[in-house]
Write a structure and sequence with these properties.
The chain is α/β, with parallel strands linked by helices. The chain folds into 2 domains: 206 residues, 3-Layer(aba) Sandwich (Rossmann fold); 188 residues, Glycogen Phosphorylase B (Rossmann fold). It contains 15 helices and 15 strands. The strands form 3 sheets. A 7-stranded parallel beta sheet has the order 3-2-1-4-5-6-7, sandwiched between helices. A 6-stranded parallel beta sheet has the order 12-11-10-13-14-15, sandwiched between helices. Strands 8-9 form a two-stranded antiparallel sheet. The longest helix is centred in the N-terminal third of the chain and has 22 residues. 42% of the residues are buried.
Length: 414
């Protein structure tokens, strides 16, 4: 097969599938925004990487209410021009794999009408029952609710043009309207459980000196960025109760100060600064360690030394770090929200707790740590559940390849 992967932050969700197809002997190309593609070049053997430059949008063209749609169309046109150059030079993909977001997939079928277009259907916006309106601390404005239709518009345009879609989880698939679900498969990206493993001898070096090991009591919290969508504000409010119940615990918080999904704050303000000010005088900061980001091997070391790993999220796309923590046999204390329940079974593979209850979070951490080795079966069951459902090499990659082959061969029908 000749497969073209399109993702503005290439490889994105295709980081494992693209090189796997190369190993199987397929012709693989990746198209993304040029600066992101350039960063990936050393680690993409066998993949032909192509970059596009996204010009700035003309001043005054963007309107606040329709900006998301305008940006999507702008990016889609740029990608279409790049794809047209490929077509002019004789390139003809059998399958195009593209993320549904950002508008990249809008016009690809117009350039390559004979190619099968497979969308990665990560998320569809809903005014109720999902992330919007979940947290009463950040209620949506009436106009924000109306704007959801604008945000879904480029997704619907791409869905109308595509041949098939794939969603990583059942819950993510069910966010889409039923008539679209008919042509969306459920297929997880997978976790490489040969790399993501427990290690009793692991050590984590701290930025300000010293290190942590399994001999220490380590409570971990990880998010790409520290923001409300991932429960950062709730976790911070739980710290006083956590420290009171666990006086020897060292807390390690990983995450940056940008905003990925949550409401933007005024210039110069971050959610970390905001919560530090709110919790001033209530927390022993000498037992709290802040690390903006970790290289992947060190991130795994963090999970391997963790005594209790806290994962909180709105009803939104669950982070890969949740399954990685489970695969490392972490004792997971997670929010009792819909996407989490698809991975964590309370009392069997982790401990669930009310997202909005800081005291309850502290109590569940304390419950798990007091139990000590009695929690070992739960830790092992967490890892086994990842192996049984989401193992990358034995389950997910073969299933993804079969999906591509079935699509290319015309064997998928809505």
């Amino acid at each position: 097969m000749r497969v073209l992967f399109v993702h503005q932050n290439y490889p994105g969700q295709y980081r494992h599938l693209a090189p796997h197809l190369v190993r199987l002997g397929h012709d693989v190309s990746g198209l993304g925004e040029k600066p992101n593609v350039v960063r990936q070049m050393p680690g993409a053997p066998g993949v032909r990487l192509l970059g596009y430059e996204l010009p700035a949008i003309e001043a005054g063209w963007l309107k606040p209410f329709t900006a998301s749609w305008q940006r999507a169309v702008h990016r889609g046109r740029v990608v279409a021009r790049g794809a047209a150059k490929l077509a002019k030079n004789g390139y003809r993909p059998d399958v195009i794999c593209a993320h549904i977001g950002w508008g990249e997939a809008l016009f690809l079928k117009d350039i390559f009408p004979d190619a099968k277009l497979l969308l990665y259907c990560e998320f569809y916006y809903r005014p109720k029952g999902s992330d919007v309106g979940f947290d009463p601390e950040f209620p949506p404005s009436p106009e924000a609710l109306l704007r959801l239709r604008i945000m879904n518009a480029p997704l619907q345009m791409a869905l109308e043009a595509c041949d098939w879609g794939v969603a990583p989880t059942h819950w993510q698939r069910t966010q889409y309207p039923p008539h679209y679900q008919a042509k969306i498969s459920e297929q997880h990206d997978g976790i490489d459980t040969t790399i993501v493993t427990p290690d009793p001898a692991a050590r984590l070096k701290l930025p300000k000196g010293g290190e942590l090991s399994r001999a220490d009591e380590v409570i971990t919290f990880v998010s790409r960025n520290l923001e409300p969508y991932r429960g950062f504000h709730i976790f911070m409010r739980a710290l006083p109760a956590i420290q009171k119940r666990r006086p020897k615990a060292q807390v390690v918080i990983i995450g940056g100060d940008e905003v990925s999904y949550s409401p933007r704050l005024p210039a110069g303000q971050t959610y970390r600064k905001k919560m530090l000010a709110e919790m001033e005088g209530k927390v022993d900061w000498s037992r709290v360690h802040w690390i903006p980001h970790l290289p992947y091997p060190e991130f795994l070391s963090l999970l391997r030394v963790s005594s209790a790993h806290v994962y909180l999220t709105y009803p939104f796309v669950a982070s890969w770090s949740l399954q990685e923590a489970m695969a490392c046999e972490c004792l997971v204390i997670a929010s009792d929200t819909v996407p989490v329940r698809e991975y964590v079974e309370d009392g069997k593979t982790g401990l669930l707790t009310d997202f909005f209850n800081p005291e309850g979070i502290a109590a569940r951490i304390d419950e798990g740590l007091k139990a000590g080795k009695a929690m070992d079966p739960m830790r092992k069951a967490a890892r086994q559940s990842v192996i049984d459902k989401y193992d990358q090499k034995t389950l997910c990659l073969p299933a993804q390849v079969k999906l591509l082959e079935d699509l290319a061969g015309g064997r998928l029908k809505a």
